[in-house]
Amino acid sequence: MLSLIKIRITIILLSISFAVTPITLSYPTLTYAQTETSTKLVHAGQGNATNIEFAFIPQDMVIKSGENITWDNPNFYAEPHSVSFLNEAKYFPEFVAAFNVTNSTKFLSSDPKISADPLFVPTEPGQKTKTVIMVNARAFNPVAIDSSGKNVTYLEPNSNYVMAGNESLVNSGWLWPEGQAPPGGSPISNFTITFKNPGIYSYLCNVHPWMSGSVTVK
Description:
Blueprint: H1 2-20, E1 40-48, E2 51-57, E3 60-63, E4 68-72, E5 84-86, E6 96-102, E7 119-121, E8 129-135, H2 137-140, E9 143-145, E10 152-154, E11 160-163, E12 169-171, E13 190-195, E14 199-204, E15 212-217
Parallel strand pairs: 1-4, 3-15, 11-13
Antiparallel strand pairs: 1-2, 4-13, 5-12, 6-8, 7-8, 9-10, 9-12, 14-15
């Protein structure tokens, strides 16, 4: 009987210990262990409205040539992320871009349902062109620019892109949590890349540039 009582007391004490011990969540930071045939998965961001983790999880991946990685945005809040591979800083896709147009260029009024107007840079006397600031499609939409930097290919939302490795820019577009893309925005929730050639591929998020990751292809 005393042994049984001791066992019950031990169980109660262990239960109390687990109940009062804080649980610390940890996230993997290196290779995502998955089966050989499955597409590897990387989360862009993680958490909730009160505890947001601005990181790619896992941050560093090691895969074999010919394998795939899919990036998604698993968050419950409407915070976008992107996956941007670029070989030079000048290809970083800023949100807005400046375009020169002739002074005679006329712009139609914007949709009355939207509170928006184009922004013009003040011109100098005698200047024949004016500069208008516009949204940069390369920042928001999936796009690939070849090694020359001249040939631009826009991809479908949620694309599966085959990476050669010498591209000037490969950008996923803004990844939104499933069903949380803004009205009129492209419903992009994932982006998949097939890596053909060995090498180390670094990338970042153009929304939060301190978010970075790498893919090592063997």
